[in-house]
Amino acid sequence: MPATSVVDGFWGAVGRTPLIRLKRASEATGCEILGKAEFMNPGGSVKDRAALGILQDAVERGLLTPGQPGTIVEGTAGNTGIGIALAANAMGWKSIIVVPHTQAKEKLDYLRMIGADLRLVDPKPFADPGNYVHVSRRLAEEMGAVWANQFDNLANAAAHAATTGPEIWEQTGGRVDAFTCACGTGGTLAGVARALKSRRKNIRIVLADPGGSGLYSWVKTGEVKGEGNSITEGIGQAARAPGNLASARELIDDAVQVQDPEMLEQVFDLQMHEGISVGGSAGLNVAAAIRVARDLGPGHTVVTMLCDGAARYQSKLFNPEFLRARGLPTPPWME
């Protein structure tokens, strides 16, 4: 769609984000490393695509009707909840968003600001009934509401197969050799992999994983087994491969693991040298793209996701006290 087109509200404004050439990463590897600017979506993150895809699917199945009363419940680290709340507002629906209270304060404040019914819970492992995903499912069942179920609802991956992947193909003119990104639900990686590999089978798909997550091991060995930890939010899985990710296992060629110091290096570097202010998952993705590019060698094109903006993590990523307490590097200009 041309940039001059007029779109209809939130539902029309999601997607069609630009690819940004990451100058320093490209020069360091001799490759073209391109970041898809998902922070430019109306809700500020790549999760707007999943939220919209899930709600569009609910409308098509008759579970929700635009302009008629309806309620959507979701368990989230924050960004999917923001997308769902805004998309619901645009249709006259209510949203109930269940979030672990340990997530960045900025995201919690934003959810309250946009009118979501925010339910904070203690962080619990997936096997615990108190885990935020299970709490959201029970709430939806008790209320007779729609449960978004972003982890296992394949409408998530389908949204990326229909939009994100084709956009990357068109924006690169089909000249893309590899795609890498981190996974929370796996919807982005699964959907983009499906779209790109249907166009050219030898495009390399690489899962990027933070410390503490078991998805790196899942790709390498078939077993979900994580070690360590990470301050990143909304990515990684310690207990299982969600349905969206598992649906595309045969399309994933490899995995890389990126620790927090390497992630922070990219977050700080992008902000101060390229004027691109992104969150931790985007920093991890760029670090992974550099690794993939070096494995491929000069002359290749690697695409990754710039998932959201840094302002949602100011109290963590840009808080020297928080970082020093964890033995992590601080922003050089804030030392």
UniProtKB/TrEMBL annotation:
Q: Which PROSITE patterns match?
A: CYS_SYNTHASE
Q: Where is the Tryptophan synthase beta chain-like PALP domain?
A: 12-308
The biological pathway it contributes to is: Amino-acid biosynthesis
Cofactors that this protein relies on: pyridoxal 5'-phosphate
Give any single GO term for biological process.
cysteine biosynthetic process from serine
Q: Does the keyword NAD apply?
A: no
Per the UniProt record, one Pfam family is PALP
Where does the sequence pass through the membrane?
none
Q: Name the keywords, alphabetized.
A: Amino-acid biosynthesis, Pyridoxal phosphate, Transferase, Transit peptide
InterPro entries in alphabetical order: Cys_Synth/Cystath_Beta-Synth, P-phosphate_BS, TrpB-like_PALP, TrpB-like_PALP_sf
List the GO molecular function terms. Answer: transferase activity, transferring alkyl or aryl (other than methyl) groups
Name the coiled-coil region(s). Answer: none
Among NCBIfam families, the record links this protein to: PRK10717.1
Q: Would you tell me the protein name for this molecule?
A: Cysteine synthase A
